[in-house]
Design brief:
It is found in: Cell membrane; Membrane. This protein is α+β, with helices and mostly antiparallel strands and 174 residues long. The protein contains 3 helices and 12 strands; from the N terminus they run H-E-E-H-E-E-E-E-E-H-E-E-E-E-E. It has one domain (2-172): Umud Fragment, subunit A, CATH 2.10.109. 22% of the residues lie in helices and 34% in strands. The mean pLDDT is 85.
Length: 174
Amino acid sequence: MAESKKQNEWLEWGKAIIIAVLLAFILKTFVFATSIVEGESMYPALEDGERIIFNKLVYIISQPERGDIIIIQHPEKNYVKRIIGLPNETIEMKDHVLFIDGEKQETSFVDEYHAKLTGNFGPIQIPDDSYFVMGDNRAISKDSRNGLGFISRADIIGRSEFIIYPFTEWEITR
């Protein structure tokens, strides 16, 4: 009788472990994943070497929004950038001020120093189903202004949610 009880206990533990592994696999594959920030283009919001968790499911049920920090899938590597312009908008930077569809925009995610490093551009019409992205550290960022171009909706694979490493930097990134 004791051996039967021990065997049932092992079976229950085995089931629990298998369920936990399957659940972790499903979450990592379809809901959350991690990425490492490479470079200083998103400073000060994100720093080189930080590990972030990004949400893969969010854009299946909603649309990307201005200000979202997103993960962009490109053939050579993934990029972490911030959405600045949405589909069919006209974007322009004039005298360190961002204008969208002719209206001045207040941006809380870029300080005055980094805003001054952006430089003038535009007006630029963003195509349907595309986004205009920039890094927060505008002087050194490869983004929609200088190499990445417009970002197709299909290339956005998730939204940054949390900084998980280094442990002293834990915070929500949205």
